[in-house]
Amino acid sequence: MLQQTTVATVTPRFAEFISRFPTLRSLAEADEQVVLKSWEGLGYYSRARNLHRAAKILTEQFGDDIPDDPAVWADLPGVGRYILGAVLSQAFDRRLPVVEANTRRVLARLGANRTELTTPEMQKWLWQTATDMLPRQHIGDFNQAMMELGATVCTVREPDCPNCPLRASCQSFLNGLQNEIPVIAGKTVTEQVLEACAVIRWKNRVFLRQRGDTGRWAKMWEFPTREYARPADPVAVASDLTGELKMPPGETGSVLMTLRYSVTRFRIQMTCVEITLSENPADAVYDDNGRWVSLEELSAYPVRSSQRTLAEALIRPLQRELF
DNA sequence: AAAACGGGGTT
DNA sequence: AACCCAGTTTT
Predict the structure, then answer these.
(1) Domain A89-184, what architecture?
(2) Other Cβ atoms within 10 Å of A99 Cβ, number
(3) CB neighbour list of residue A81: distance below 8 Å, 6 or more residues apart
(4) pLDDT score recorded for residue A319
(5) Are A153 and A167 in contact (CB under 8 A)?
(6) Of A48, A35, A42, A36, the residue nearest A9 (C-alpha)
């Protein structure tokens, strides 16, 4: 119930649920519709279905002898790494960590780690750090305490650092960084960029060109600062950008790229322009979503943040170079 | 690595 | 209106 649901919301609902299904077997033997009915208003109904399925699996395979084997639990529907650690550490004192919203904040602050929370490397760091920190005994209490610390002291806003039991070893408190950490990513924004990318075919060669105004051939993922980078954001450099060309070379399609700035993530969907070059400039055509246009018409096509048209900036230099 | 899944509370 | 919540699964 506590997955993405506040303690305040869950508390009364949990009591009702346990009263309705006091044992694992009673839950396993209940009709799914009855279980779902008792879940009404909590949302994420797949949690209820998974819980019910998991109860049936456990009861069928182990009867009333609930296993403490992490491998068994990990295969249960709805059991991810958090539930695995939470259940087994508290029910059986198994030495497994728990990482959730509160512990993420506590650990990031403790180590003054500025890596954005949702990145894979940060997730890895968080789980590893939580694992390394585990005591020998009373694992469940420790996990619970870490979450409680995040909920009551190491809060999102205005953490009570002076009264924190970990203040002496907290790298954020020691450096006055508790309000900068953790780093949370902004919402991903998607922007259509029509003229930014071109697939150029000439004889047996295919050129991928990011922009027309840099004056040189560049790989698709090498491009200068874009005007839609917000002023507060640092300049996007090649290392900040990871991209994947989703179309076969030589065909028209779109490119999805993710720009990672310090906080906000940009997702850029570029509609690529396919251009077939001819030695006669008047013959050059491009295909924009199935529409074929001559180079004459193309010359009016603007290159964003540049006074030059696509034809002037990209195609003419290409023709000069190739012919 | 996103996006989907959801209702309720906070800013 | 936007964001967040004791996450997991599917795309």
Answers:
(1) Orthogonal Bundle (1.10)
(2) 22
(3) A99, A127
(4) 60
(5) no
(6) A42
Question: Is the CB of residue A41 inside 7 Å of nucleic acid strand C?
Answer: no
Helices (H) and strands (E) in chain A, counts: 13, 9
pLDDT at A206: 40
A79 CB neighbour count, 10 Å cutoff = 19
The residue behind tokens 């395979």 is A61
- As ranges, strand B nucleotides with an atom below 7 A of a protein CB are 1-3, 5-9, 11
Look up residue A77 and give its DSSP letter.
T
**Which protein residue's Cα is closest to nucleotide B8 at C1'?**
A9
Q: Which two tokens stand for residue A72?
A: 């068994």
Question: What's the CA A118/C1' C8 distance, rounded, in angstroms?
Answer: 15
A285-288: strand order across its sheet = A205-209, A198-202, A273-276, A285-288, A291-294
> Using an 8 Å Cβ cutoff, are A285 and A265 in contact?
no
Distance CA A271, CA A197 (A): 7
Domain pair A1-79 / A89-184, same fold: no
The domain limits of chain A are: 1-79, 89-184, 189-322
Q: What is the pLDDT of residue A132?
A: 97
**What is chain A's alpha carbon radius of gyration, rounded to the nearest angstrom?**
28
> CATH homologous superfamily for A1-79?
Hypothetical protein; domain 2 (1.10.340.30)
Rounded-to-5 percentages of helix, strand, coil across chain A: 40, 15, 45
pTM listed for this prediction: 0.69
Token reading at A119: 């990145």
Q: From the CA of A54 to the C1' of C9: give the distance in Å.
A: 15
Q: Could you say which DSSP state residue A302 is in?
A: B
A146 touches strand C (CB under 7 A): no
A245-A251-A253 Cα angle (round to 5): 55
pLDDT in tens, A43-57: 999 999 999 999 999
